[in-house]
Write a structure and sequence with these properties.
The complex is a heterodimer.
Chain A: H1 3-11, E1 14-15, H2 20-27, E2 35-43, E3 46-52, E4 57-62, H3 66-77, E5 80-83, H4 89-100, H5 115-125, E6 133-134, H6 135-141, H7 148-156, E7 169-170, H8 183-193, H9 198-206, E8 211-214, E9 219-221, H10 226-230, E10 236-239, H11 242-247, E11 251-252
Parallel strand pairs in A: 2-5, 6-7, 9-11
Antiparallel strand pairs in A: 2-3, 3-4, 8-9, 8-10
Chain B: H1 3-15, H2 17-40, H3 43-63, H4 66-71, H5 74-92, E1 106-107, H6 120-131, H7 135-146, H8 151-158, H9 162-180, H10 183-186
The chains are: A alpha/beta, B mainly alpha.
Chain lengths: 262, 187
């Protein structure tokens, strides 16, 4: 065999470009194992890129273009992601429900995140629409009361914002804190859509009010707790902290768990 | 490509199309891409031709009865589809799409006893030279020398007598040698 024929054999050993097989499989509707699929969805909060696996939704980003999303995704989660024309119908319905605050059935795939991040995000999922919780609340609820800063970091790196509502976690001083989807202004808008008035939260904090108690039930709540919203103006008692609440004979609300039961 | 492996793949395809198809794509992707690259000379075209080949294969596999799937000679079958895809493209190509970001092909350096492997640029140049051959020579040279088929196999694919294939390969190689000039020194 002469040189040219060797060269031609080399040409026969050329490798297909990275991701070629995945693109072929996705084009016929097969999502390969170990690869997340994603697509762009138009939602009431803008165009979002949403990735998922068989387990559930794995990532959400504000759409900034294909390359951007794919690079970010593999950097953040260490897996490959392939664009598909459309997501499964069932998932679209579930995402719409979750965005509208209707009993969310949406499942999530948190693989690739640390156990701590997973705990923080699962706890954050419990915060109902229209309510907020302090970072310290999340830290305490997952049994890591001193890890407030780490909770903030974990939420700042939430790979599934909007659907895992990290925008519902705010600072104890009444300011909203950072938001990975575009800063405090976007966070304020997200909360306003859900019926939370950020200005009101700031006023409460400025007045030193962290909890609200009810003179009729002797229960105290976080201000946005649905039970707190029901307290009539005449029976409403602003409270500074747990100690003041305890002295006045208030028990913590079992729903919003404003403080550890002592 | 081992026929034993092909038999495993066709069994898998017959049992479970999605799983079998995934295996087949993973096994054959490089081979079909290499074929498409040698035929078209352009990485962007090569990816399209190779992808179309698999898409058509998938459409066909969905229609074929299980017995027919089991008897497929995958290597030959996929090459035949690729050849058709390529011919159809050539036929309808009066306007060309501008490739967005052509990726340079990478030679697999692992197999083969020959230490000398062409650089990416040289491979691309070679693919370009090959794709410049007249079609009857090109298909014969690519199937025989790039894809390593026997003359009998190539003859069956091109539906030509073996003698014609041999002379086309011979003339194709001569033309390449004339045009290649210093190419071999690039590697």
């Amino acid at each position: 065999m002469d040189l040219l024929e060797k060269d031609l054999r080399d040409l026969g050993r050329v490798r297909a470009p990275d991701g070629f097989a995945d693109r072929v499989l996705v084009a016929v509707g097969i999502v390969p194992a170990g690869v997340d699929a994603y697509t762009a969805l138009e939602t009431p909060v803008g165009v979002l890129e949403v990735a998922w696996t068989g387990e559930g939704v794995s990532a959400v980003r504000r759409a900034q273009g294909r390359d951007h999303f794919e690079r970010w995704f593999s950097g953040r989660l260490g897996r490959r992601v392939v664009r598909v024309p459309e997501p499964p119908d069932r998932m679209v319905g579930q995402i719409a429900d979750a965005l509208a605050g209707r009993s969310p059935r949406l499942r999530f795939d948190l693989a690739g995140l640390t156990p701590f991040e997973q705990e923080v995000l699962r706890k954050t999922l419990e915060i109902p629409r229209g309510e907020v919780r302090p970072y310290a609340w999340v830290a305490r609820e997952i049994g890591r009361p001193r890890a407030v800063r780490a909770v903030g970091t974990a939420l700042g790196h939430n790979p599934i914002p909007v659907l895992i509502p990290c925008h519902r976690v705010v600072r104890s001083d009444g300011t909203l804190g950072e938001y990975s989807m575009g800063g405090p202004e976007v966070k304020r808008d997200m909360l306003r859509r859900e019926g939370v008035d950020a200005a009101w939260l700031a006023e409460l904090a400025a007045a030193g009010t962290r909890f609200v108690g009810s003179r009729t039930t002797h229960v105290f709540c976080l201000p946005t707790c649905r039970y707190a919203q029901r307290i009539g103006a005449a029976n409403r008692v602003p409270l500074r902290d747990e100690r003041e609440a305890a002295r006045a004979g208030f028990r913590p609300c079992a729903r919003c768990r404003p403080a550890l039961v002592s | 490509m081992g026929s034993e492996r092909d038999a495993e793949l066709t069994d898998e395809l017959a049992a479970d199309l999605a799983a079998g198809f995934e295996s087949m794509v993973r096994v054959y992707q490089h081979r079909m891409y290499a074929f498409a690259l040698a035929m078209s000379g352009e990485p962007a075209d090569a990816e399209e031709v190779a992808q179309d080949t698999f898409l058509r294969a998938h459409t066909a596999l969905r229609r074929y009865p299980v017995d027919r799937v089991r008897q497929l000679k995958l290597n030959a079958w996929l090459h035949q589809i690729a050849l058709n895809v390529f011919r159809n493209r050539v036929r309808r190509r009066s306007l060309r799409l501008v490739p967005m970001e052509p990726e340079l092909p990478v030679a697999d350096t692992s197999p083969g006893p020959e230490a000398r492997v062409l650089s990416r640029a040289a491979l691309r140049e070679l693919a370009n030279l090959v794709s410049g051959l007249p079609e009857h020579q090109r298909a014969a040279v690519v199937l025989r020398c790039v894809q390593g088929m026997t003359y009998a196999e190539v003859a069956a694919h091109l539906e030509q007598p073996e003698g014609t294939v041999k002379s086309n390969v011979h003339r194709g190689l001569q033309a390449l040698r004339r045009r290649a000039g210093g190419l071999s020194e690039v590697g």
